[in-house]
Fold this sequence. Notes:
Distance between the termini: 26 Å
Number of domains: 2
Radius of gyration: 19 Å
Amino acid sequence: MNGDPTGTAHAHRPFCSIIPPHVLDKLAQSDDPRRFEPARRTLEHDGSLRTRRRITAVRGIAATTPLGIPADTPQRTIYDAGHLTRLPGTRIRGEGDAPGTDATVNRAHAGLGATFDLFLKVYGRHSIDDCGLPLNATVHYGEEYNNAFWDGEQMVFGDGDGEIFLDFTIPVDVIGHELTHGVTQHTANLEYYGQSGALNESLSDVFGSLIKQYALGQTAAEANWLIGEGLLAPGIHGTALRSMKQPGSAYDDPHLGKDPQPSTMKDYVRTSRDNGGVHINSGIPNHAFYLLATGLGGNAWERAGKVWYAALTSGELTPDADFADFARQTAKTVRALYGDGDETRAVLKAWAQVGVPTS
């Protein structure tokens, strides 16, 4: 599907955000207006965007992405929404421009570059669509907007409310997570519901974490495997949004609630909320990848990451692929890449530990 000029690979463009609805729902029930007002505004805005994306997909009028010219350097443009919700906003920084005084703009620019670097230098992928797609991002979006999202064409970052969430450009893995939704959109095009949606979310967490590890030069053993570290405001009881090492342990806070992620199929959560629990059950394939990467050792973006990337881009996953479908594809992929050695045994063991069959 890469670079499909017909646009068929682009028809399914869900609204993919880093903060799940169940967290915002919890905050919206607070008695403190400093917490419930930003959460309610964010929920209302996100709901309208989801509806708009769904209508666009049903009508089949999602814009196709023009084919770009693959290059070994990114083409980044950062816009400032000025706390409004009109996109893209005012152009602030383009490719080759010197850093300015706005730290948010500089972090967004650097995060887009870190994402581009991993996919190009490790996996030979030229930007999100493998055809040199320009990387555009809008910062300072909305009023105390508690989210960041990929809208099918560009990145958007809120500033957070300062009470629960800080600036959404702070964690580079959040930037990488959202841009990876674009990679999935242009490859397997996984449906954003149930297990395929949770797999979609997990792939974004996996590559978001790898982008962070690659940028910091961390081995699998040195990494903390947290997603969104640094995003929670001081005083919030938690370390991040999610933990791939220990799903369900990222936060336990009276305002946010308890991290609901399971680590194995034994605790799989069946719910109609959050598109069938896409941000919840993603903990299961997340943990499988963590077990694989730490089991193999060394740099996670190398053997473990190459198996996951090759499986995602194989062209053999259907949009409704579930965990078992992806596990079987990784088993097939690792054998093709490495034969029946340590890598294959590690992949089979990781999936077995989380209760997902590979045959």
